[in-house]
Amino acid sequence: MHKQRIILILLAAVLLAPVISYGQTVVPASKQDELIAVLKSGDATRQEKIAACRLLTFIATKKAVPTLAALLADEEMNHMARYALEPIKDPSVDIALLEALGKLKGKPLVGVIGSLGVRGETRAVKPMAKMLKSNDAMVAQAAARSLGNIGDAAAAKALSSALSGSSGDTKLAICEGCGASIVSQVLLQRIEASLGEVADPLHTALSRYCPSCRLPFAWSAGLHSSQHEGKM
What we know:
two-stranded antiparallel sheet, disordered C terminus, 14 helices
């Protein structure tokens, strides 16, 4: 009971410390160690740990990564742990997420797949390409959307290759991934060099399976515009 009171007082102090500036919450960077301690505490409640993760979103550094990564396997804390990890500008986050990608299952795995897509981690493309054929539909669909977010040539090729053998909601997710990869910043930078290898198969696949799709960024430049519109 005494420890719980200490944790509550600590969180209250952190929550009261921020000031609102131009609509943004500012959390003192000096509070990071205290928030990490809350996450490590066996006496902290789930709500207290959620609050700590939310505040770490503003100030977390490499130091917080191991503690946050340890929560990825916890189905109840996975979301908030990733919420705090995603903004951290340190490669240790990507390493932790990649390690979790090979260990987790179910909803925690789906969440990690999503976070790797948010961070644009190209090293996740190969394992995610295999996940497009997963028996777990949630995993396959999450992989498709994240590959679209990563959007490099390898991700686009994996998506277009998987499209013909897919069905139902998974096919729809792959189509979404294809569209996202076409217009992603990374793929657009390479579109000229990879036009024959990537853009044509994607265009063919999307025209066949997604008659309502439009890819304005890629084709507005005149790339296959008449061909694409004709097939729609």
